[in-house]
Amino acid sequence: MLPSLLLALREGVEAALILGIVLSTLRTLQRSDLNRSVWAGAAAAGLASLAVAVGLRLVGATLVEPAEQIFEGTAMLLAAGILTWMLFWVNRQARHQRAGIEAQVRGSLAGRPIFWLAFLAVFREGVELALFLLAVGSNSAPLQTLTGALLGLAAAALLGWLAFNSSRRLPLRAFFQATNLLLLLVAAGLVAHGIHEFAEIGWLPTLIDPLYDVNGILNENSILGSLLKAMFGYNGNPSLLEALVYTGYLAVLGLLVSLQSHPARLQSAS
Predict the structure, then answer these.
(1) Which pTM was predicted?
(2) C-beta of residue 253 within 8 angstroms of C-beta of residue 85
(3) Domain boundaries along the sequence of the chain
């Protein structure tokens, strides 16, 4: 439940902030009469995203081995790739996001309906969330995944409302930095699990399987082990391939994110 809650919270906050910027820009331009179009676009995007999520779940449920492993492995690697892109996008573009959205709102008033601006912004986040939930859902029951997603979206709506209506400034920078770290670990788990799925059908060599077995100390099927498995891809008896992929991903992405956050280090490294 926690992975789906975290992912829904992060995607929901991003969507809520975009909608908040759109609505505040319309208010500044004295075009609050278009607020209904914004909410209509957001609602339509939510329904369309739900349809995508249900469709992906139905497709996965109809597959049998080895197509099931191929589908799940591909979904996990694709989700990890999008999460990785998100980490870099936030570091590079977040500070310029408001100006870009305001420009799009002004452009919409001159031509494209504001409905589609809101629809596309929310639909992008919704499709990403649908893919993420499909990827992390393999490690938890469907009801737990759904509950976590709903709680995350509810919390995101509350944070979005507070961000634009509270007299006190919310520490959104700290929020994104903290969730970046957690999402990095989630993405590493997805990469390792996706590689595991392909190794199971013989597409990749396991090298040494298992590399070690610590299930006697912390069983991956215990309460804590299940939580760590669902959240960060914990495996009590991984193959050498999985261990190399997991640690390699964390090392490389952690270094790149750190260098990107400190441009001076990046310049000296080059």
Answers:
(1) 0.81
(2) no
(3) 2-269
